[in-house]
Design a protein that fits this description.
This protein has about 300 residues and is α/β, with parallel strands linked by helices. The protein has 13 helices and eight strands. Strands 1-2-3-4-5-6-7-8 form an eight-stranded parallel β-barrel, surrounded by six helices. α2 links the parallel β1 and β2. It binds 3-methyl-2-oxobutanoic acid.
């Protein structure tokens, strides 16, 4: 039986997923599962459900903070949400997404910021976007003892260069370049690689050529694992849903329904009822009233 499958042990604890254990699934032909989280309750639920890895993605900027893209997300925002996730998850491998301009300006800054994810954010690995142009940065971060997950294909931090959130690697030339980038990132020391919005057969080819696990999002069935943005999967992000997302719930509609019922209950004075109110013993109440010097409760309590 796999050490990574969502087995509940006698002590009700799953075994901790390390980067090593994460990688070991590939040669065993076992699929890897990853989802994003940005807060404590989501991390708790994912961990209890048996997820292999939790990514605190910079998708935070869009699905939680309401920005148009991921570019405004800062290190401080990422670390704040990483800490919340780390408090909720016990077994899942925790990966922090390095935000725009936290690793591009210099290799030294990249190492320091990657280190902050482990030291201040409670993460166990970082993810960063880009191919050959990031190979030296990856090598330096890994040399500092920090596991790095790569990210190729649709790299949202380059949205302005890519001309929008659109699939990548669809020409022979672009596909060849992506394959080369993947091999370079593996050689630089990445322990795993996200492939986002690339043709399924290209993702499968890359996955076969690499010995590190690939994690696909909009990249078909041939990857070694799958990831989605949790808010897309839950139907919590209502602005748009990428074609490759499968919705497992419609929580935005469910939230709106619950909020509507609450407003109706309060407006109609049905809530809070006795069941949802706090009481005090009668004798204490009587003592209070008698101490109010014969004045009624409404006169004495202001
Ligand atoms: O930020 C994010 O959530 C990601 C995933 C889409 C892989 O990078």
């Amino acid at each position: 039986m796999s050490t990574l499958s969502p087995v509940v042990t006698a002590s009700n604890e799953r075994k901790k997923v390390t980067t090593h254990a994460f990688q070991q699934k590939k040669p065993r032909g076992e699929i890897l599962t990853m989802l994003t989280a940005y807060d404590y309750p989501t991390a708790l639920a994912l961990d209890r459900a048996g997820i292999d890895a939790i990514l605190v993605g910079d998708s935070l900027g869009m699905v939680v903070l309401g920005y148009q893209n991921t570019l405004p997300v800062t290190m401080e925002a990422m670390l704040h949400h990483c800490r919340a996730v780390a408090r909720g998850a016990r077994a899942a491998l925790l990966i922090g997404d390095m935000p725009f301009m936290s690793y591009q300006a210099s290799i030294e800054e990249a190492i320091r910021n990657a280190g902050r994810f482990l030291q201040e954010g409670g993460m166990e690995a970082v993810k960063l976007e880009g191919g050959r142009e990031r190979a030296e940065t990856v090598r330096a971060i890994v040399a500092a003892g920090i596991p790095v997950m790569g990210h190729l294909g649709l790299t949202p931090q380059s949205v302005n260069q890519l001309g929008g959130f659109r699939p990548q690697g669809r020409t022979a030339e672009a596909a060849q370049r992506l394959l080369e980038d993947a091999l370079l990132l593996e050689e630089a020391g990445c322990f795993s690689l996200v492939l986002e919005s690339v043709p399924a057969r290209l993702a499968e080819l890359v996955s076969r050529r690499l010995s590190i696990p690939t994690i696909g999002i909009g990249a078909g069935m041939g990857c070694d694992g799958q990831v989605l943005v949790t808010h897309d999967l839950l139907g919590l992000f209502d602005r748009f849903t990428p074609k490759f997302v499968k919705r497992y719930a419609d929580l935005h509609a469910e939230m709106q329904r619950a909020f509507g019922e609450y407003i109706a209950d309060v407006t109609a004075r049905r809530f809070p009822d006795a069941e949802h109110s706090v009481e005090m013993p009668d004798e204490e109440w009587e003592a209070l009233l008698s101490g109010l010097d014969g004045r009624g409760p409404s006169q004495g309590l202001n």
